[in-house]
Design goal:
single chain; 549 residues; mainly alpha; Serine Threonine Protein Phosphatase 5, Tetratricopeptide repeat; 26 helices; transmembrane helix
Length: 549
């Protein structure tokens, strides 16, 4: 009613000085107000129905203010919560939500048992700290929560939210301390630690994209001492980012290995319930680390159907045939290499499944190969366009190189004598010119032919696995060699023409000639390296999963 609303407004106006004191951490002003009206200790003093203690905990400005308030409050007052408030938590629960460790310490110092007291939703403070992603608060509650609380769903939820928040070391600590949490299972299995890991493809090496220089740092960081890394991270932020990413990969792989190890020793029904949904989700998302570790520890995982997940009797090969999410595809450069990655993933899973599963049909009558073709038809078209556009652009450059060096072969520097013999035939720089010019001509011609073969290929699905990438690799390599040889021939010719008296000009010109090669290397070399590694590198299931720092 209007009368009650007016009284509520008066109440908020009355409590305004206390609210301002709580926000500012001004204990003297708050104390004077409390001397006048002691009932305000548990009164709702804000528009969102927060007490003075909750306001002070939220602001986090003054630890003495919180300490003085807690000293005045009995345990019953600290356990009060307002169901009408959007917070609806005790003071300790609210400290866990906002991540105020100091406030939690003050409350538990007076009433230690509150760390184990659940709220109306059966949530403990440690759960709230994990769910809202406050690392320091979570670590504090780990030391003040009874071990018995980590035997079931609460412990699993803390592990789950620790993983989601990126506290992988905390999750590892909890699983090592309470191994039963690794195999905890209930229907539906969408909240187990392994399932949560399968929901986050970007935290694994397979879901991370690096630039060329980042890949080098990532690969060779294990050979560098920890002390040296610490120094480098202080002065080079980008190195710190790569190092932190590698540490994250180490921890997530350790989590997967630990969980799979624990699954080996439990009964079959519980084991199947614990790994099926995560493995199939990982197969859909292309997280080969989870699929590899699970199938190595539990070989029957590859022989199971997905009936419990989508009710269509899909095998793991049916799921591997589906198009990967866009976030996963974008980890690879270009539609053609994306198609190659999809084929590699499908064929690797195909090698390991039960032979009859290669031709098995789901409830819709589709084999894995039919699903693959249907899901990837648009990617095949995009890959064809990408390949042709790249080859056309590179073929133009290769043709220009061939034209220039062919003409240079008949217009040698210094011209010829009356007998048609080059004047500088006996100079070393002339021989360098001749050899470099010949190399440039041969390799540029080979490059043109390679790019031409890419343009005339049939572009079937299987061509994206080896045939197309191989031709593009040869084309780019020969183009790179021909451009290098052309620039060497140019510098040799310049040295001959200028002679010894003008040799000082040759050095800056030679340095400038390195600019186009540097640009080409910077723009195209990472693509070439990526193609070589993806085409001729180790297979997906045999890549080194365990990363060492």
């Amino acid at each position: 009613s209007a009368k009650e609303e007016n009284r509520s407004k008066k109440s908020l106006a009355w409590y305004q000085p206390l609210y301002e004191a709580a926000v500012a951490g001004d204990w003297e002003s708050a104390r004077r107000f409390l001397d006048i009206d002691s009932d305000t200790l548990t009164a709702d003093i804000s528009t969102v129905l927060m007490t003075a203690l909750q306001v002070a905990i939220r602001e986090g400005h003054s630890t003495p203010f919180v300490e003085n308030l807690v000293d005045l409050m009995p345990i019953e007052a600290l356990q009060l919560k307002n169901p009408e408030s959007p917070i609806d938590e005790t003071a300790l629960g609210y400290a866990a939500i906002v991540g105020n460790v100091k406030a939690a310490e003050i409350i538990l110092r007076k009433y230690p048992g509150m760390a184990n007291t659940p709220d109306d939703y059966k949530r403990k403070p440690i759960y709230l700290a994990a769910r809202y992603g406050h690392r320091d608060t979570l670590l504090y509650f780990l030391c003040h929560t009874e071990d018995s609380l980590f035997t079931g769903k609460l412990g699993v939820n803390v592990v789950k939210y620790s993983i989601k928040a990126g506290f992988y070391d905390v999750a590892i600590h909890l699983l090592e301390r309470y191994p039963n949490l690794a195999t905890y299972y209930e229907m539906p299995d969408t909240g187990s630690p392994l399932y949560v890991l399968a929901e986050l493809p970007w935290i694994f090496p397979s879901g991370t994209r690096f630039r060329f220089w980042q890949r080098l740092i990532y690969a060779y960081s294990r050979t560098v001492t920890v002390a040296f890394w610490d120094i480098l991270k202080q002065f080079v932020p980008c190195i710190k980012s790569v190092h932190d990413t590698k540490l994250r990969h180490m921890q997530t792989l350790q989590l997967v290995k630990f969980i799979c190890k624990e699954l080996i020793d439990i009964d079959y029904l519980k084991k199947a319930g614990s790994y099926l949904a995560p493995v199939f989700l990982a197969a859909r998302s292309g997280i080969y680390e989870i699929v590899t570790e699970c199938t190595q520890s539990i070989p029957e995982a590859l022989w199971c159907c997905d009936a419990g997940v989508d009710k269509c009797k899909n095998t793991i090969l049916h799921l591997a045939a589906k198009l990967a999410p866009v976030s996963q595809l974008n980890l690879v450069s270009g539609a053609a290499l994306q198609m190659q990655r999809e084929l590699q993933w499908f064929k690797e899973v195909e090698k390991h499944v039960q032979p009859t599963y290669k031709r098995s049909k789901n409830l819709e009558g589709e084999t894995p190969r039919v699903i693959f073709s249907e899901e990837h038809k648009d990617l095949v078209k995009e890959g064809e366009k990408w390949m042709k556009d790249t080859s056309t652009a590179c073929m133009v450059v290769a043709t220009l190189v061939a034209t220039v060096v062919f003409a240079a072969a008949f217009t040698v520097p210094g011209s010829n004598n009356d007998n048609g013999i080059p004047i500088f035939l006996r100079k070393d720089s002339f021989m360098i010119f001749v050899i470099s010019d010949a190399v440039a001509l041969f390799f540029s011609t080979a490059s043109v032919l390679m790019f031409l073969s890419v343009l005339t290929l049939r572009y079937a699905e299987e061509d994206f696995l080896y045939s197309l990438p191989k031709r593009l690799i040869i084309g780019l390599t020969t183009l790179f060699i021909s451009m290098t040889a052309m620039l060497i021939a140019f510098n040799a010719a310049l040295s001959i023409v200028l002679g010894e008296k003008m040799s000082w000009i040759a050095t800056p010109v030679a340095l400038l000639s390195c600019v186009p090669m540097g640009l080409f290397a910077m723009l195209e070399f990472p693509l070439l390296v990526e193609m070589v590694l993806s085409t001729y590198g180790p297979s997906i299931f045999h890549k080194q999963s365990e990363v060492m720092v």
